[in-house]
Amino acid sequence: MPPDEDCRRCRLGDGRNNIVLPCGHLDSYVVLVGEAPGAKEDLEGVPFVGRAGKILNGLMAEAGLDRGKVMITNTVKCRPPGNRRPKAEEMAACRPFLQEELKGKRFILALGLSAAEDLLGKKMVMKEVCNRPVQADLGHGNVTIVVTYHPSACIYRPAAKDVLRNALKMAASYL
Ligand code: URA
């Protein structure tokens, strides 16, 4: 079940315009999990339609991954004020919705450390864990999880861009 339209499970509900629900092919085996909606996503109610979304779209195209063939979602469905990272308690409050979205998925690409830490329940160092598939059971059987850079981290970092593009290629190979 998605959140109620007046969801107040955490304080992020206070400032939102829209709850940002998953987009793309909702029944795909492959899901990309971002951090949290930004300003444009909050206005349009769709994940990754702003600046980070443009970077993601470009890299997906280069990786041969069709945006319409995967599900795209976020750890939290409401925009944190000032685009700060979502707090652990906000991710925990939204977790039942993410959990439901992940049913039936076989490959999860965690975009950035917020998503990675929410999914895997531990702190990580990106350069130590990126693009190394791990197996985990998040409650619906075994899935492959790949942690990689968030598109925003790629803005001035070509090396991070290469890593994210390679992770998107891994996702493409699961389709
Ligand atoms: N950043 C995210 O993590 N998710 C979005 O939907 C947009 C920007």
In what range is the share of β-strand residues?
A: 15-25%
**Rg calc:** 15 Å
Q: In what order do the strands lie side by side in the largest sheet?
A: 1-3-2-4-6-5
* Element string (H = helix, E = strand): EEHHEHEHHEEH
Residue-averaged pLDDT = 97
Number of helices: 6
Number of strands: 6
CATH superfamily: Uracil-DNA glycosylase-like domain
**CA-based shape:** globular
Q: Under the CATH scheme, which class?
A: Alpha Beta
The main pleated sheet reads as: 6 strands, mixed
In oligomeric terms, what are we looking at?
single chain
Distance between the termini: 25 Å
Give a list of the ligands: uracil
> What is the domain tally?
1
The assigned structural class equals alpha/beta
Low-pLDDT ranges: none
Helical content band = 25-40%
State the gist of this model.
The chain has helices spanning 39-44, 51-63, 88-101, 113-120, 126-129, 158-173, and strands at residues 23-24, 30-34, 71-74, 107-111, 134-137, 142-148. With 175 residues, it is α/β, with parallel strands linked by helices.
